[in-house]
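Teaching assistant here, posting this on the class forum so everyone can see the example we discussed in section. The complex has two components, and the goal was to see what a joint structure prediction looks like when all of them are supplied at once.
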Amino acid sequence: MEFVIISALNGVTYGLLLFMVSAGLTLIFGMMGVLNFAHASFYMLGAYIAYAVSSYFGFWTGLIVAPVIVGIVGMLVERYLLPRVHAHGHAHELLLTFGLAMIIEELIKLFFGDFPVNYQMPDNLRFAAFTVFGTDYPFYRLFIGATAITMFALLWFLLARTRIGIVVRAAERLPAMAEALGHNIPVVFMGVFGVGAALAGLAGAVAGAFYPTNPNMGLELGVIVFVVVVVGGLGSLKGSLLASLLIGLFSSYSVGLDWSLAGLFGLVGLGDWAQSIGGLMTLELSSVSATIPFALMLIVLLVRPAGLMGERN
Amino acid sequence: MKKFAALAAVSTIALGAHAVQAEPLKIGIIESLSGAQTSSGRLYATAVQYGVDKINAAGGFNGEDVQVIEYDNAGGSTGAADKFKQAVADGVNIVIQGASSAIAGQITEDVRKHNLRNPGKEILFINVGAEAMELTGDKCQFYHFRFTTTAPMRVNAMTSAMKEAGDLGTRVYSINQNYSWGQDVQAAINAAAEKGGYEVVDEVLHDVNKIQDFAPFVARIKAANPDSVITGNWSNDLLLLMKATGDAGLDVTFGTAYLDQPGNIANAGETALGHYIANNYDNTAGDASFAEEYKAASGHYPLFVEPQTIFAVGALSQALEGVDFAGGDIDVSKIALALEDVTYETPVGPIAVRKEDHQTIRPVVVSRVVENARYPADDTSMGFEAVKVVPGEQAIYPVQDSCDMKRPG
């Protein structure tokens, strides 16, 4: 029971963090069709800006300033870099953002050094929210989760229930028609890209204080965020949320389970034989927990190539 | 006529002098100077440069300054293999590398093959940080020298020091990264159980630096109810593990191998207090003049992997004093033979090479994180304080059976 509850709690909060980072990525892809490889770099940029700002003006200022600056950086990228390669198709956009990711990483190293920086949450947030089975549950994890849920609610409301949402969706579906009706499509796209980047920046600012802020954080989370978006269905916000939670829970539960193929064979009396083979047979589930999201992606792609909530195109 | 003869003589001498112009010793650093492991790679490179500067200040070698060439392996063994070829083309005599056992495995194989194919133009590989047992086991070879500890040396020293301090307890948890180094540490923890008087309550291997959330692992550690956790984890895997443990309010003592990686202490905060590390050196152990001298040259006290690298270059420098090529061709085999006989005095004790497998016999320092430290880490008030220096003879383990070294000649 203890294992089930604690793993569920850990899995959900981690899943919500994943969602927070992947929301911007899926938004940008869904609305603009740009696969932004530099998205995780925006996440890292957010953490570093929040660190730099918070050391002078306090944690909360950092939390507000970081997404704004990262959003502006995103808009500049959309305005001045992407149009140049847009005519050449997706591959060029991907390569451009890939290069951008490398440049951002090296710039960060140049300014902040190779080592993790000391970006910490404020002391008044550092307490245990509650205690389950003798384990303190840090409040900050709940804070990360709450931020993610708020973000999802706001985004959904904005896109589905407001006039801005209608324009954005129209711009995505029929750009020429929307333009003919007097909407400035380039500005709409720039705005969407900016918001997407800002969301990543906010995620970085919030998560960077809990996980270490180092020059590799973009790289480390970047791959998993892509997995989330692919599993959830490219461009589907709800799909991203579902995939994030799934991956969070799967990773969390797998750690506590020492299941192996040998154990499976043991059920039918072949355990000793499987043990003697070793290798893949005795590989425990817990030792490959970080690989599980990728296995999940493989299965989803085989069964449902468009992702869990993605539209078939 | 006489004048002409003199002129001829002078020019002959000049020409002759030109012909025997000394050949410089070239050291190639093949390190991770970009990508995820830059933080470690850069420190190795800086430390090598510091050591070589000292050799050059004392007159260099073979009548010339020793040259250092940096090669960026971009953090992978493929990059290392490419850069090794380039180093060969540049005429490098000695290769130095430290970050990552996988890369060291690649380099030592490349060096072995190169030396087989190019007798008389051998290359020496000085390994300053890759700790996988197989480098002095299955893959051991004459031209590879390891100037750092290995898993059993660290674990044995750590468990004995923690036991003496009463912080080890009887229930030990083993959590490690699932690759050669982590598996070595896990094996060493199990092997030391009897002598350390503890029971390994649970052991887990996990993916290397892929896990963002260690809370599930902490839940598992808590379920096993250990007194202490011993781990060979480094970088994010250590930091996240310690932070998650601190956040969960779990009361265990950590025994680590890489807690001194820059940024760790500041990021872990007070969670780090009271935890242990076993490594090659600590500023609080032994003579302080080494640390001060290094600070004067580089602006900071030696940290993380720098000391062991400086000691390795120091030992090399001592070996070079014993060989003389009179400005002619450099015979790396002679340097290697001289390096085998070197006993290098470090502030914490002597380092000597074991001829059978070229592992160095060296002291292991166990230290603990304390408040108000003499040498504060990461601009905090915390830092390391040595609790025990285990001399080389006690720390060393028997030569692995798998080592079959072919000596030159």
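For the discussion questions: Chain A has one domain: 2-257+289-303. Chain A touches chain B through 49 residues (CB under 8 Å). Think about how each of these relates to the inputs above.
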